[in-house]
Amino acid sequence: MFLLPWFIGFFGLVVGPMISSLYLSFTQYDLLTAPQWVGAQNYVEMFNDRKFIASVKVTTTFVVIGVPLQLIAALFIAMLLNKGLSGIGFYRTVYYIPSLLGGSVAIALLWKNIFGMNGIFNDFLGIFGIAGRGWVSHPDYAIYTLIALATWQFGSSMVIFLAGLKQIPGELYEAASVDGANPFMKFKAITLPLLSPVILFNLVMVSISSLQVFTSAYIVSEGSGGPANSTLFYTLYLYQKGFSFFEMGYASAMAWLLLIVIALLTAIIFFSSKYWVHYEYGGKS
Q1: Residues 6+ apart with CB under 8 A from 260
Q2: Can you give the pTM of this predicted structure?
Q3: Rounded distance, CA 158 to CA 74, Å?
Q4: How many C-beta neighbours within 10 Å does residue 200 have?
Q5: Which helix (H) or strand (E) segment is 27 a member of?
Q6: pLDDT tens string 141-172
Q7: How far apart are the C-alpha atoms of 187 and 169, rounded to whole Å?
Q8: Strand, helix or coil for residue 223
Q9: Contact in structure between 253 and 238 (CB atoms under 8 Å)
Q10: Contact indicator for 26, 249 with CB cutoff of 8 Å
């Protein structure tokens, strides 16, 4: 009885819509007329769709570059905050705030202005005599401004890294110092192996969220994915297909393909983890 509200929500708001979208992915559906069964046509059509291919390339670039940068930034700041600085709570809060605000429309608009032709980033470059440009409106650079925005949102991963660092026994570092290990050797032989389960968790979570990025690309490109499809993320194109072109069957097929890709990527990461994740000290280092 107590679980009944949860079951109603789970089957009514999660399982039901998922089954419906799976059915719709095999239909032609424009939201106005009854769905018409077309079999696997939507899935076949994707790979002949140039904009779909472009969205896959943009999203892949974002994940391949953005995920490592975000994890490196999070780990670097976490290691600095783990030094026992005074006012650690304040700094931890300051670095975590971007994770709370980064996915908002307001921050995306702010980012668009910062990297616009008259933005403060160009003002900063002007101090050194470097000519600025409209970074968010240039097809060669627009994607990298969004990668920078994603990297800035490292707060959640940082907090988790910091918690993991605090679980590493200080005696190991002291013993390494006695043996003459330098900071790099300590990082390689102690920090990375013992932190590897935390790295695995952050890698999975950041990768999944990066594949689903939408708000920043939508706001910066005003929903178009421009310039020249340079910010046409997968989820943005899915949105366009479903709610701009009313091709809900095609959009549902894209959603299920994304689910499959996320599941496969997560499985690959977990499979590879047996070669680099160490749950007890004394393994490979």
Answers
A1: none
A2: 0.89
A3: 4
A4: 17
A5: strand 27-28
A6: 999 999 999 999 898 899 999 999 999 998 99
A7: 13
A8: coil
A9: no
A10: yes
